[in-house]
Write a structure and sequence with these properties.
The chain is an alpha+beta fold. It folds into 2 domains: 192 residues, Jelly Rolls; 38 residues, no CATH class. 25% of the residues lie in helices and 27% in strands. It has 5 helices and 13 strands. The longest helix is centred in the C-terminal third of the chain and has 19 residues. The two termini are 25 Å apart. The relative contact order is 0.20.
């Protein structure tokens, strides 16, 4: 496992997208086919997704993790969303996924960690808020992050994080998972990413964290995750054996 430095947990990236144009494109798909997020154990209330980039352009594929041989292409939905496409194309690196995520009024995403989604892993997640309110509580590594419409935020979701929408409007973000390259290295250098923190360390995972990571990986049901699932199951077994002793 990686040692994810708290100093590298979040960065406001040097982009400012047009709030009105983002909202306009959102209006084009509000009546579209919103799909409930697959990991139902991680949230309460309404948390729905529309895929803009997905394997073979399939609108039903809302996972952020792609298989090694997946061809990531635009879904038909994106063809009418000119400004969404412009925002995505601002990132001069390969796009692994692009999704619109809507967290309903009163909904809550429980504290959890994702896997291999930090810049150190070669993948980075960017949130571009479209609609939000001042009562959205996005907590990452015990710190609240306030994101405004049109901004672009890198978030290392390998660190514990949660979201609660305590306001009276939905919270809607354009969320990108991007592949690291030379362009992104320069981007992250410009905002103060500490590259010296990129190092391998032994990390003791808790039993609960391992169980949740195994559960999430199993939802993908693809060959590429099977070795990691077995590794985590072995780690979990070791922890349980120690507890029994």
């Amino acid at each position: 496992m990686k040692n994810y430095a708290p100093e590298n947990a979040t960065f406001l990236l040097p982009f400012q997208f047009d709030k009105e144009k983002l909202a306009h494109d959102l209006s084009l798909i509000l009546d579209g086919n919103w799909i409930p997020h697959f990991n139902t154990s991680d949230y309460t209330g309404d948390w729905n997704v529309i895929a803009l980039y997905a394997p073979k352009g399939e609108e039903s594929s809302i996972h952020a993790l792609a298989t090694s041989n997946s061809i990531m292409t635009e879904t038909p939905i994106l063809q009418d969303c000119i400004y969404f496409k412009k925002a995505i194309d601002s990132f001069k690196c390969p796009i692994q996924s692009a999704r619109i995520l809507r967290l309903g009024v009163g909904a809550e995403i429980k504290t959890h960690v994702d896997f291999n989604c930090g810049y150190e892993d070669g993948i980075f997640r960017v949130h571009i808020p479209i609609i939000t309110n001042d009562k959205v509580h996005f907590i990452l590594n015990n710190k609240r992050l306030i994101m405004q419409p049109g901004q672009a935020w890198y978030t290392n979701v390998n660190l514990p994080h949660s979201v609660a929408n305590k306001g009276q409007t939905n919270r809607v973000h354009l969320v990108l998972d991007c592949i690291r390259n030379e362009w992104s290295d320069e981007l992250f250098k410009s905002v103060g990413f500490d590259f010296d923190q990129e190092k391998e360390v032994v990390e003791q995972l808790t039993e609960n964290t391992l169980s949740r990571m195994i559960e999430e990986l199993e939802l993908y049901n693809i060959a590429e995750t099977k070795p990691l699932i077995e590794q985590y199951k072995n780690d979990l077994l070791k922890i349980q054996m120690v507890k029994e002793d």
